[in-house]
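Researcher: Let's do a round of design. I'm pasting the structure tokens now; please hold your answer until I've finished.
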């Protein structure tokens, strides 16, 4: 199965801006996450609970760095993201997300973000 890149990017956008219902519908039963402040396996319900309004994003820009399909039902996406929290705080990160294809469609099963700091930006 070849993934529809636009469909995948739209899912990814919604994970940045969507609500708990979207997360519950589009994350797999379990999801491995890796953030500076949390890492580990989260259940669908635990992950959906992180989609609270004060933590949602706006002005999201995504620059795709690569997409690979290591199997017919798995796809990995890596991109650079720039966004602003609703409170105005800017954020930039390298992001990787893994999806598995289930009967109901693509489900997020892995997600990692590595923030890009000002110091790292000036070195490049």
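Researcher: That's everything. Go ahead.
Model: Designed sequence:
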């Amino acid at each position: 199965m070849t993934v529809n890149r636009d469909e995948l990017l739209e899912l990814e956008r919604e994970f940045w801006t969507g609500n708990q219902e979207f997360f519950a519908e589009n994350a797999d039963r379990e999801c491995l996450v890796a953030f500076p402040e949390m890492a580990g396996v989260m259940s669908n319900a635990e992950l959906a609970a992180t989609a609270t309004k004060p933590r949602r994003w706006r002005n999201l820009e995504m620059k795709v760095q690569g997409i690979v399909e290591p199997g017919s039902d798995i796809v990995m996406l890596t991109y650079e993201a720039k966004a602003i929290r609703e409170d105005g705080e800017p954020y930039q990160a390298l992001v990787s997300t893994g999806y598995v294809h289930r009967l109901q469609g693509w489900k997020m099963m892995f997600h990692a973000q590595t923030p890009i700091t000002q110091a790292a930006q000036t070195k490049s």
